[in-house]
Structure prediction request, 97 residues.
Amino acid sequence: MQVILLDDVEHLGEQGDIHEVADGYGRNYLIPQGLARVATDGAVRQLRDEQRQQARKEAAKEEQAEELKDELEDMQVVFTAKVGEDNRIFGTVTTQQ
Prediction:
């Protein structure tokens, strides 16, 4: 019996994996516990669609993070503080400065 894992299962696989398992293990344990569902053609197609959508979302987030990184790299932050003769700061830099 082929099943689609709905959650990570120790010694079997991770969420979204398709595995061949013994009929009894699938029917009596995995499916009743909500850990898997039967891998029908429709369920596999739905899983692939969900994985593609998730990949697109992750790619968009990664692109957005890259843009933010580029923006922050160009930014310059300047702190002013009193220094002594050796160009060492008196005290500490706090959030109030």
Observations:
- The chain has two helices and three strands.
- The beta strands are 2-5, 18-20, 36-38.
- The mean pLDDT is 91.
